[in-house]
Amino acid sequence: MIIKVHGESYSPEKESTTILDLLREREVEMPEMVSVQLNGNFVKKENFGSTHLKESDEVEFLYFMAGGDR
Amino acid sequence: MKGFSTKAVHGKTLRKDPHGALRYPLYDSVAFEHESARDIQLAFEGRKPAHTYSRITNPTIEDFEQRVNLLADSLSVIAVSSGMASISNIILAIAETGSNIITTKFLFGNTYSLLETTLKPWGLEVSYINMEDTDRLRRSINAKTRAIFLEIITNPQLQVPNIKEITRVAGEYSVPVIVDGTLTTPYIFKSKDYGVSVEVLSSTKYISGGATSVGGLIIDNGTFDWEKCPKLEDSVKKYGEFALVSKLKREVYRNLGACLSPHNAYLQTLGLETLSLRIDKSCSNTLQISEYLETCEKVRSVNYPGLKSSRYHEIAKAQFKGKFGGILTFELENKDMCYAFMDGLKLIKRATNLNDNKTLILHPASTIYCEYSPKEKKEMGVSESMLRLAVGIEDVEDIIEDINLSLAGI
């Protein structure tokens, strides 16, 4: 499976990968602060573990850099 | 950590200091270096948690914001350059030409000026109502209402609105409630528990730790669904519950240049650590002084929510955990008497500020309301015979002695 992360092609280690898996696999910095967009839409933090990625999905890890957990 | 004071002292540090400094250092730097061109690109795009430029983010300011976020138990916090910056930024983020804000004329003078003389010419409509009249509030809300704005304790009228009642009505119409919590702070009043959407406040006052620095805060409690705000539709799609903070951080706050100075953030972080101690002392002093003033023959009336004679005493007692703030007003015979009294004071300073460590006195009608007509002043509850005392943390006996001697001389 090939997806895009921050506009660059990326192949997750497993075929069945959730957003939470991807956060760990990519060792995303300050995961408690990150907001995730999947194909331009916001994904709630509580859905990170249940949202499975599929071919050609586009993922963005975003930071607002204000005070507060994400 | 459960207690407010423990949280205020220990905070919640996201990034460990490389030297293990117990006090988060002051990063008084404008710019931050990046390892590669790609890294700085990612930081600009918000795809990497790195600081770029202190008008937008800064480590010391971020630490301050995190600490406030912990104390308010909120979704997100943005520190800004002043209390007025917090109000102007939030209104510009959620309202547009032709939309309206519902508020009251019992407002800080500069807030009223912002609405009337700065924002109205840009097409913002403002309805002024009595916040105690919830029927009128219902009738005032329409499809173009973007927020209800009010002060938790109004300054200097010291009215205490019933916040739960107002947020209940606002909730029926899906309108956010924005409160100015300058006189209470999250220590006295946790606005999230009362259904408030956003709290703004001037951190110059109680939080700065004794008038050390000017600053403001925008606290998004995470209680309002920003999908109901037309101006944030795009932000909601991209950023969900963080729609407001993203709109501010990635546009309004950034473009207006509303940043807090890192030095001020450092000072205000120090102020947070002693906030509860100072508020306890100033509230206790204010109550004792108000009770003393009620016994003085030359004083026509005393206004303080902590007094049983105040019509707001019961609601204030319920909302503020037995603390009633550090401000009182009282009336003398006329303006000349007020001036003579002010000029006779030796310890209390003639100055315009609130919640300093020092006790300050002001004649509101001739200072922060000097630009308004007598009719407007009357509507705003400001009379020529009113004095405002912002009580500090000195020994209360010394403050009362100063008042006593000056009253004797007029």
Keywords:
heterodimer, A: 70 residues, Ubiquitin-like (UB roll), five-stranded mixed β-sheet, 1 helix, 5 strands, B: alpha/beta, Aspartate Aminotransferase, domain 2, Aspartate Aminotransferase, domain 1, 2 domains, seven-stranded mixed β-sheet, 39% helix, 13% strand
DSSP strand content of chain B: 5-15%
Helix percentage of chain A: 10-25%
In spatial order, strands of the major sheet of chain B run 1-7-6-5-4-2-3
What pattern of helices and strands is seen along the backbone of chain A? EEHEEE
The percent range for helix content of chain B is: 25-40%
Question: How would you describe what is shown here?
Answer:
The complex is a heterodimer of chains A (70) and B (410). With 70 residues, chain A is mostly beta strands. Chain A has one domain (3-62): Roll (Ubiquitin-like (UB roll)). Helix content of chain A is 10%, strand content 26%. In chain A, strand 3 and strand 4 (41-43) form a beta hairpin. Chain A is globular. With 410 residues, chain B is an alpha/beta fold. Chain B has 16 helices and twelve strands. In chain B, helix 9 (233-239) crosses helix 10 and helix 14 crosses helix 16. The longest helix of chain B has 19 residues, at 275-293. Chains A and B meet through strand 4 and strand 5 of A and helix 3, strand 1, helix 9 and helix 10 of B.
SSE arrangement:
The complex is a heterodimer of chains A (70) and B (410).
Chain A: E1 3-5, E2 8-10, H1 19-25, E3 35-38, E4 41-43, E5 58-62
Parallel strand pairs in A: 1-5
Antiparallel strand pairs in A: 1-2, 3-4, 3-5
Chain B: H1 4-10, H2 37-44, H3 59-72, E1 76-80, H4 83-94, E2 100-103, H5 109-119, E3 125-128, H6 134-140, E4 145-151, H7 163-172, E5 177-180, H8 185-188, E6 198-202, E7 216-220, H9 233-239, H10 243-256, H11 262-273, H12 275-293, E8 301-303, H13 313-319, E9 327-331, H14 335-344, E10 349-350, E11 360-362, H15 374-379, E12 386-390, H16 396-408
Parallel strand pairs in B: 2-3, 2-4, 4-5, 5-6, 10-11
Antiparallel strand pairs in B: 1-7, 6-7, 8-9, 9-12, 11-12
